[in-house]
Amino acid sequence: MHPIARAAVSLLVAAAVAGVTAGPAAAQDEAPWTVATAANDLGADRDNYSYTADAGERIDDGLVITNHDPGPLDLAVYGADAFTTDTGQLDLLAKGKPSTGVGAWVHPGRDRVTVQPGQTVEVPFTVTIPVGAPSGDHVGGILTSMTQGDVERRVGSRIRVRVGGDLRPSLSVENLDVAYSGTANPFGSGDATLTYTVRNTGNALLAARQSATVSGPFGSWRVPAAAIPDSPQLLPGETRKVSVPVHAVTPAVYLGATVTLVPLLTDAAGSTAPLPAADTTAHGWAVPWTLVGLLLALVAVLLVLRRLRRTKESVDEHRPEHDDVTV
Predict the structure, then answer these.
(1) To which H or E segment does residue 309 belong?
(2) What secondary structure does DSSP assign to 208-276, as a single string?
(3) Which tens digit of pLDDT belongs to each residue from 112-122?
(4) What is the pLDDT, as a whole number, of residue 313?
(5) Per-residue pLDDT for 227 more than 70?
(6) Could you tell me the end-to-end alpha-carbon distance of the chain, in angstroms, rounded to an integer?
(7) What global pTM score does this model have?
(8) What is residue 304's predicted lDDT score, i.e. its pLDDT?
(9) In whole angstroms, what is the distance from residue 84 CA to residue 239 CA?
């Protein structure tokens, strides 16, 4: 399951300090420290931070850091915006990369903390939602980090804020294309490949349940694609490229490809609900070239035979006639 949707979202990221985007998350137990949500009026034993609030509101919370190392740890504490990687994983911007969303709304009570061996320290932080913040879902995180040489190791927790107002969940399919690969068998079927981009055009965090079909003119010879995995959850404005093979497609000259998306909306409690499906259709050519070649060859043979027959008939017509002579 995608990290945004699973129960626990903790990050240990090894990334160059030079300001590049952090790489995929790794297991938290690789770090000598762990983080957890504080127990307070917002809840106890929370897996991560999830808030529903209005623009202009301020939320007070805390991050608990535990040192499992035999020596003291000096850690930086900061917020960062989230994004989805090409592999479908949730990641957070590296330190030094500017945040404009949740990462900029998070303000730790202190930007550095020293945790003694075997000890636990709670760092308070606030999330201040600016006046005029757009409604919908915003995702980021609060991170603790330690620099070792030229590598920054980070452990953090996700922060999801749903800002009050109209929630407009919406997905679209862009740049749908169908390409056909033929077969040497003049009466056989081939494979088609559908490529398209899923875009989150709304203001809610969404995954996409996907299905696709390919058919000939007027819906003939319809062939469904094999099961397509759900997309990772996409932040508003994010995109994901998809490539889907479809087998046993009849080369019906002009193909129609249809992609159906069912948006999957997860609420603040973690429950996921499907929304009404939307279809997108595109067309492409699927010419049975082997069969066309055979037909052209047959036509060429028939034309040659016809020409030979006409030539013979013309010769016969112009042959001189001789009277029979009896000797």
Answers:
(1) helix 289-318
(2) EEEEEEEE-GGGTT-EEPPPPPPPPPB-TT-EEEEEEEEEEE---EEEEEEEEEEEEEE-TTS-EEE--
(3) 999 999 999 99
(4) 65
(5) yes
(6) 109
(7) 0.77
(8) 66
(9) 9
